[in-house]
Amino acid sequence: MPNKDFLLIYHLLPEKTSQQCFSEASTRRPADLLSSFTTIKTVMRGLYKDLGDVLLALLKNTDTRENVLEYLAEVINRNSSRAHIQVEPLSCASSGMFVNLSAVMLRLCDPFLDANLTKRDKIDPKYVFYSSRLDLRSLTALHASSEEVSEWINKGNPAKADGSKHFSDGENQLLQSQEATSSSGGASEPSLPAGRPASIGGGKSKYPFICECFFMTARVLNLGLLKAFSDFKHLVQDISRAEDTLATLKATQGQTPSSQLNLEITRIEKEIELSSQEKLCYEAQILRDGDLIQHALSFYRLMIVWLVDLVGGFKMPLPDTCPMEFACMPEHFVEDAMELLIFASRIPKALDGVLLDDFMNFIIMFMASPKYIRNPYLRSKMVEVLNCWMPRRSGSSSATATLFEGHQMSLEYLVRNLLKLYVDIEFTGSHTQFYDKFNIRHNIAELLEYLWQVPSHRNAWRQIAKEEEKGVYLNFLNFLINDSIYLLDESLNKILELKVIEAEMSNTAEWERRPAQERQERTRLFHSQENIIRIDMKLANEDVSMLAFTSEQIVAPFLLPEMIERVASMLNYFLLQLVGPQRKSLTLKDPEKYEFRPKQLLKQIVCIYVHLARGDTQNLFPAAISSDGRSYNEQLFSAAADVLWKIGEDGRIIQEFIELGAKAKAAASEAMDAEAALGDIPDEFLDPIQYTLMKDPVILPSSRITVDRPVIQRHLLSDATDPFNRSHLTADMLIPNTELKAKIEEFIKSQGLKRHGEGLNIQSIKDTIQTTNGDMLID
Description:
InterPro entries: Ub_conjug_fac_E4_core, UBE4, Ubox_domain, Znf_RING/FYVE/PHD
Keywords: Cytoplasm, Nucleus, Transferase, Ubl conjugation pathway
Subcellular location: Cytoplasm; Nucleus
Largest sheet: 3 strands, antiparallel
Region (Disordered): 176-199
Helix content: 55-70%
Oligomer: single chain
Number of domains: 4
Shape: globular
EC number: 2.3.2.27
Radius of gyration: 32 Å
């Protein structure tokens, strides 16, 4: 039996231990805290061993084995609400109890967590559908809906498990090894008399113990250890928010003292102290127990290898149809594995000795596979794992670098699948999808920037852009441009708002005359705007940086008909903001504080201009630049060049940029001559969206409206619908309007001959004619 003192100490851990070991933690010496951590860790290890011994003794006894399994299942089923964000403490077991149970169940799993995972064939996926112990069918599945799961099960596919299934000889030998390993502090399965064919519970169970133990452990970890990780993360976030609030209140108190503020500051300080004590208790029990985390990592390695077996093993590409056995597996099986990897990656040395290759393969296979894992947030969590493993971030580059730089599946599929996920994440189905996508793409962008520095991945990237110029790569480029424009525009607007509040606060006399509540609200708004600017500016810098370094070697997609004007308008807009008339209004006292680096941003924008000009063999880019009626101004090029000379940019870059400006100016003049030559253009020749002369008219199959192909293709990059009736539409569904195209060409030819005689360059007119009548309505 376990030592009663251990049980008593653990029972008191949340209340008494937090106060005894971690009171006034902010002023305690590190050695004192370390001593407390060591004491708690020793106590908990003893507790885990004693509890494990009790459970093991009961499982080894044939008279109690079935009752123990029923008890464990009942505990799990009755505490299923522990998976919720908010847990009602009066209706659920404590976190401490479930962390204890997590540690004990992992010990029972030890015998089948060998390096080669040789016993995984004993884990029957039918358990999820037909087990009478655990309620697994009601859990959210990886891909199948609850209706699809029920329909598939009702069809009798697969057939129900045989209730008379017994252990094999090999399993009996495994069970018989329990007593020997248990004496050394390890754990293995309960032994049965040699030669006796038995199923758990004397034939009552349909499944062998390995199978029962596997699924029970998965549920216990979800409700116990992984829930504790989640609670810890939220606790840290709460403390951080409280500290931010405290800093804001103290700043406000310094400007407008009040007794009410003093009380609020005192309350928050006490709240932070208690939360910090609780945080240290979490650290003592789970963060500093390397054995517990290593055991859990071994279990989830078995989990992901077993799941991959359901789809045919570690090989790409995946089958076109997702097997229902995989589609119906509980989503938390994968989510818990990813959460554990993220958590462990942030603990020094927690991944030492862990075999990560299987995890890496799994992530690469499924992060861009919505047909297999429906939840986009779960797939984005896989990117978060990779983000934690980046060599320059992990601190142990040798341990993780090979996963990116010497891993076959990584070299072949990683960049491709990251680009796919970047596109897919535009629509998550959540009401917060607009904001969520920026955080997810931030992680993807950091990974892509790192991979660009690896020659093999950069070569793969270039090949993907070449192969999928009209496919996923163009969608990726479109969303990258959209995000860049939005983020920079938001940041610059917020800077202007911030400066207004800053000016109000600097006028001390006027500021003091305002009501205290108004000053507090304006102060809070000021700090809120600061945070928004910092985040948006950081993301904008990443996006512009990616456009800069990729455009140096991958130019063709930028210059496609559906992209070239969009790219030119973006660059012109950025140039206008950075060197235009209003640039002085964006001056900040401490721009670095807000990640605002206008000089660096200008350099990158100019480099993109130059990179595209170098690859523009057909001389289309200058006309696209000058056709932008919103932001283009020929004087911006000379103004930008002056700034670049002052900040020491490469003279060759500056000269090429000046030459591009001259070409754009000439193209603008030529376009005006061509527009004058055409005179009044019949309405039927004008695109109904942009109101420009169509070059390649196509008919939309559903609405039957004719539009210009580049215009509708640009729209389809962001939205696969007919803009006139919202019906589904893809580029391959467009119908060429050859009759109208012939009329347009004849019109251009006749107008050209009439106005300028035979010397008129008709092709030049066709290529450069643009209108500035109104802005583009869709992107």
